[in-house]
Amino acid sequence: MCPEWTKGTCKLGKGCTFAHGEKELTAWNEHLERMEKEMKKKSEEEKKKKKEKNKDDDSAVKNKVSPPKEDERLVPTYKVEDLVSRLPGVTVTSEPRDRDVSLQVPLDSEGENRYSWSLQICYESSVTGHLQDVVLLPQYHKCYTLSSVRFNCSVKDASGMLRSVTSPDTEELPDAYHYPVKSHLRKWHGSYEVEIVVSFSTLVFGNFAQVLVLDFGKENHVAVKMSIEVGSQEFLQEFREAKTKLTLDWQLWDDGSREIVKFEPKQPSVFNNEHLIAKYKLPRSEDIVPSPLLEGSQGLSKENYKDVMHQLLFAEEFYIRQQIAR
């Protein structure tokens, strides 16, 4: 309570830091209590959030260091010479059949341009082995993705009739580039029919190529090539004309596509500026001013070295003047 207000002499009015009356004092105390409760509640919420965050971080670390599952494998890499267009016992068809497609769109098109193929792969696992990996090569455009895959395996029963032993359900693959075939799909020996859907989407014009690799665990792997040209009528026409002038091939670049040449540093010579030395040779003996002090057997001594040095300086100066006068 303000002591000056009780005397009726407080001149600060509303600017006073003490309460003017019991009612104002009660209001101030209630306000302080609310502030303390809010601060306490906020502090507890922050502690709770921090605790949850630490818990999530610990969980993420555990997940990160946990050993990979059986069917989770690294994306394999392939060499050019190991990719073949066909493999004995493996039949590949697609719908649509044409895997070299042109998509003509209006010049002012703003939406995504989409396309997809449904690939059917048929093989006898006893002949070809099991399909182990399906990979879209990273050397090519990322606008191709694996959308779904479906396995169907038929084996002969005791009566010789074929019966399906795998689930016909389709497994969706959201924007995948690698599909490692699960172990339970590789345990049967029979006739396999695999359906793989490859999707394409882009917002820009151009030519987009991709190779789908079917890895059966052999030395060679089946490479299914796909290509899409996207553009307006004028763009596609110009592109076709330019393409006829080029030699196009499907050779992939990998570690074997380069030649490594050993670097052998040049041996340093005694004179790095040989052309300058050839142009500015050492003076001939007849161009040097003879020093009579060095004639005979007198030689250089403590008594004559000053005169000899002066004579050499004169000889150098004479030679330099001759060079400048040329």
UniProtKB/TrEMBL annotation:
Zinc fingers (C3H1-type), renumbered ranges: 1-23
Domain of life: Eukaryota
Gene3D superfamilies: Zinc finger, CCCH-type
GO molecular function: zinc ion binding
Record-annotated C3H1-type domain positions: 1-23
Annotated keywords: Metal-binding, Zinc, Zinc-finger
PROSITE patterns found in the cross-reference section: ZF_C3H1
The keyword Kinase belongs to this UniProt entry's keyword annotation: no
Stretch list, region Disordered: 33-73
Keyword flag Zinc: yes
The name this protein goes by in its record: C3H1-type domain-containing protein
Provenance organism: Desmophyllum pertusum
